[in-house]
Amino acid sequence: MSADADTSLPAPKIQLTPQEWKAKLDPEEYAVLREAATERPHIGEYTDTKTEGVYVCRACDAELFRSTEKFDSHCGWPSFFDPTASDAVILRSDNTLGMHRVEVLCANCHSHLGHVFEGEGYNTPTDKRYCINSIALRLHPSDSAAG
Fold it and tell me: Which residue intervals define the domain MsrB in the entry (predicted)?
């Protein structure tokens, strides 16, 4: 279940024991970030936000996405068409729930963020939808967001 269990991944830069993660994260954050749970749709803090800024991993503060790559997919979770940098996330095959998906992990700490889908017809530069749990993110508003 934990991303750390996959030995084919490069070692995360931040490695904590499950007990240390539980001390750092609240139970809902832990369930999503460390056990690959999914928050319910349309309840997340960042699903509909238009605030400009940088989205970081709630577990380790690594920069993951920017508001300039966020778009309205109306799927119930924040959606981005590309991460901040190609090495910000790790993509991993996920065959749970009787279907094939591609899981998105924070490259820095291997926390579960959500899944990426492509070829859905969204009018974005990459034709990809990084469907990310709000609870996996923290938004750092840009200075220009106030103006």
Answer: 18-142
